[in-house]
TrEMBL record:
Coiled-coil segments on the chain, per record: none
Presence of the UniProt keyword NAD in the record: yes
Organism encoding this protein: Sphingobium lignivorans
Residue intervals of the Fe-containing alcohol dehydrogenase-like C-terminal domain: 185-291
Organism phylogeny: Bacteria, Pseudomonadati, Pseudomonadota, Alphaproteobacteria, Sphingomonadales
Family statement drawn from the similarity comment of this UniProt entry: Belongs to the iron-containing alcohol dehydrogenase family.
Enzyme Commission code: 1.1.1.1
Domain (Alcohol dehydrogenase iron-type/glycerol dehydrogenase GldA) ranges: 9-174
Keyword annotations of the record: NAD, Oxidoreductase
GO MF terms, alphabetically ordered: alcohol dehydrogenase (NAD+) activity
Co-factor requirement: Fe cation
Pfam short name (any one): Fe-ADH
Protein name: Alcohol dehydrogenase
Amino acid sequence: MRQWSFHNPVALHFGAGVFDRVKEQIGQRQWLLVTHKDAPFAPMRDRLLGHVHPPLAIADAIMPNPSLAMLQHVCGLLQARAEGIDVIVALGGGSVMDTAKFLAAGHCDFRSVACYLDGQVALGGRALPVIAVPTTAGTGSELTKWATIWDPEQGRKLSLNRDDLYAEAAFIDPELTASLPWPLTLASGLDALSHALESLWNRNANPITRSFAIAAAGDVLAALTRLQVNLDDQDARSMLASGAMKAGLAFSNTQTALAHNISYPITLDYGVAHGIACSFCLPEVMAAAIGADDACDTALGSIFGALSQAPQALRRRLTDLGIAGDPAAFGIGGEAWRGIVADAFDGPRGRNFIGARDRFPDRSVA
Ligand SMILES: [Fe+2]
């Protein structure tokens, strides 16, 4: 039997009301709050600020898909107070988490992390600790040690990947997602589904990641089906948060694979939300994965039924959720699509993929 290991050092707190325990985690430390400025975040922000000593600073000029330009702006605003920060609290979705990790890595100094990402210099010292409080169910960033940073000016997607960027604690409170509108619920939920499946058709998969991934995919699909008809179904909200957490634990150890590598240019060049960009072609990626590894096949069969029809079964689920399967629906022409897929197989995440290029279908699985 092949040797394997599983590692995740994040202290994980899950359930309705755990948000109120963030206070104990902060303790007497001087803290920086990273969050969104938008109105839906106001009640959560007020609830946190209402019972914890005031933060040293608040960084809330956070935009989706954090870019180097946005991070430079945020670091500039924090410069005067950066020295005294002991811990960062990230309250938000994936963009807030990734921004918090960038700030943590360089102690709010933009230049040091930007030069590190360019491969010019090492990053000295240990990152600031982060307390992660996700307000969406999907990104999994609260359980991983990496952050995605975008450089649209140069058409680059950059990755921070350091052991000291695991959060010291994550507080996953499904009640924080209670008022999330359907498009965001769907996109973040499908991101979690992608994390689960990408950790299955992955060279780094092991029995623990597989069991988390199978449970995650089941939770996410069931929860999205319920939330599509009733967005106020709090049990389904909790199931979705649980699924996203399990997917996070799975892919924190395997990384993602081909579908994520396909998604990056689609987000960068076509403006498609990450959760949609990495999920609309999952049936094609699955078709290319089936037959490559017995354990992966067994896992996919346990989620989607007979393997011969599993990609079609997933396509039907995605169609029912309103997700188009044809790249043309996102403005991607045939030649561009073939180029994106070919590049993705050679990309860093694509190399995690167990499937074969010649089994990737030419047309969308219908
Ligand atoms: Fe993702």
